[in-house]
Amino acid sequence: MAATAFCPAHITGFFKAYLRDSISDTGSMGAGFSIKQGVTTRVRVSPRDGQSRYKIIVSGYRPDKTDVSEFVIKEFFKLGEFSDIFLDINHEIKVPVGYGLGSSGAVALSLAFALDSALHTCLEKTRIGMIAHNAEVSCKTGLGDVLASFHGGFEVRVSPGAPGVGSVEMIPAGDTSVIMVCFSPISTNKFIKENLSRINGLGGKMVDKLLESRNYDHFQDMSLEFARYVNVMTPRMQKLVDDLADNGIKCGVALFGETVFSMVRRRDEARVLEILQGHPDGILIRSELDHVGARVLDN
Prior knowledge:
Blueprint: E1 2-18, E2 27-47, E3 54-60, H1 67-77, E4 85-93, H2 103-119, H3 125-138, H4 145-151, E5 154-159, E6 167-170, E7 176-185, H5 188-213, H6 216-229, H7 235-246, E8 252-254, E9 257-265, H8 269-276, E10 283-288, E11 295-297
Parallel strand pairs: 3-4
Antiparallel strand pairs: 1-2, 1-11, 2-4, 2-5, 5-6, 7-9, 7-10, 8-9
């Protein structure tokens, strides 16, 4: 038995955190978008012939730990009699880890979809999403990426929590390209702990404003305002933001990472890429919106 699943990477422009007693109710309101790069996870099931019950291999960009994956695996082992099987798990991560691109959520959600298919647990999609969300919250790697990348597209998270608890409202974004530069990683857990009151003071108000305008240029303006308000702008980020603004290009900041993104019409791609050539010390990503969200792939 084998299965493969994909989850898009997700970028958050601003948010308000909700830390509640229930893990499934914990999450965030905010706004962001999913891109076509992300995490592909392959699961192969074979008879168990030793002490170990699973093996995790990561290719592409590598995380420091595999605790999110292990949490998801253990939750699935609770769903049936799986003591006599061995799981070969391969995560192919196509986005930098720790740069605000939701890689941990994508690992958890792609694994949960692949395990459900490979083990024939036949869970409701929202239950699959809830397991992945609970893994990310429990491991303190994020709050709202799973809910967002579960749905894909350009979204506003209008109520917090796991898929099936929280909810999103989709905003059409037309023929949009996404270009970003990732300079260096930031610890999500550490940042939220140190800046929670400042984050929540502005993030909730921005949700209402974006629902009124439903405009991705407005979203990028608010993302920059939010980044400055919570004091995550570094000098090299500011220099890139200024260079783009001098050329009439809107941009925003991915939370949490030293990453600047620009959502632009395809006709403006070449101009943005030319500007970014002057900032070679970052990882350049060119993508488009993923409108499908997490899913099982044909095997």
